[in-house]
């Protein structure tokens, strides 16, 4: 995806799917996605972790440790959340975009988009990996959604509330990948 698509997609998703009536900051129906590593050749919620230098950062957890690992060279934009009390935020690095939602005093990770920088998934898939590489690590249970290779935790591509892992393919290779927690979908 080009940079403008990265910036617009979450906004469109919020407008289309979000109910702009605030709800209490009770995220009990949205469990933290924890990194219990599943075996190669399969996909589960445990695959939704971003890894930097051996540290794993899960969706639906505080962004503070991830910002510390990535450093302070980012731009931040914020706007009122349509689902939670507070502000949704976007943190933009050179090759990583992170979208958060508010939970009390914390900003919780909802989406991590990676477009370069040598980053890879916890199973070693990065920019330039092939579909065969992806299937070897995550299995063949993916869906083609708008031309992207998408793994859905629930296994149902129509389940908008289920967390997902997206791989944008260009010239038969990964051009970007996105972890999506679906916390802003009510």
Write the layout of secondary structure elements.
Elements: H1 3-17, E1 49-52, E2 55-58, H2 64-70, E3 75-80, E4 87-92, E5 96-103, E6 106-114, H3 131-138, E7 143-145, E8 148-152, E9 164-170, E10 173-180
Antiparallel strand pairs: 1-2, 3-4, 4-5, 5-6, 6-10, 7-8, 8-9, 9-10
Describe the model.
The protein is an alpha+beta fold and 186 residues long. 16% of the residues lie in helices and 32% in strands. The protein has helices spanning 3-17, 64-70, 131-138; strands at 49-52, 55-58, 75-80, 87-92, 96-103, 106-114, 143-145, 148-152, 164-170, 173-180. β9 (164-170) and β10 (173-180) form a beta hairpin. The longest helix has 15 residues, at 3-17. It is globular and about 40 Å long.
- Average predicted local confidence, pLDDT: 84
Please report the total strand number as a whole number: 10
Helix content: 10-25%
CA radius of gyration is 15 Å
Kindly report the oligomeric state of this protein: single chain
Global structural class: alpha+beta
User: Which shape, going by the Cα principal axes?
Assistant: globular
Order of helices and strands: HEEHEEEEHEEEE
Give the CA-CA distance, first to last residue.
Answer: 26 Å
Profile the largest sheet: 8 strands, antiparallel
Tell me the strand percentage band.
25-35%
Q: Tally the helices.
A: 3
> Ranges with pLDDT <50 over ≥5 residues?
1-37
Concise synopsis of the structure shown:
16% of the residues lie in helices and 32% in strands.
């Amino acid at each position: 995806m080009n940079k403008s698509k990265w910036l617009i997609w979450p906004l469109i998703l919020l407008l289309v799917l979000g109910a702009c009536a605030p709800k209490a900051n009770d995220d009990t129906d949205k469990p933290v996605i924890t990194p219990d590593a599943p075996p190669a050749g399969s996909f589960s919620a445990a695959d939704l972790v971003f890894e930097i230098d051996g540290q794993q950062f899960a969706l639906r957890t505080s962004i503070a440790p991830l910002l510390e690992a990535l450093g302070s060279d980012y731009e931040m934009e914020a706007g009122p959340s349509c689902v939670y009390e507070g502000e949704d935020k976007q943190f933009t690095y050179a090759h990583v975009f992170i979208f958060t939602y508010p939970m009390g005093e914390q900003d919780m990770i909802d989406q991590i988009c990676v477009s370069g920088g040598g980053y890879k998934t916890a199973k070693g898939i990065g920019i330039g990996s092939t579909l065969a590489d992806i299937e070897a690590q995550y299995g063949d249970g993916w869906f083609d959604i708008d031309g992207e290779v998408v793994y859905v935790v629930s296994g149902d591509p129509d389940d908008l509330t289920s967390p997902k892992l997206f791989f944008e393919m260009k010239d038969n290779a990964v051009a970007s990948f996105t972890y999506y927690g679906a916390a802003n979908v009510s």
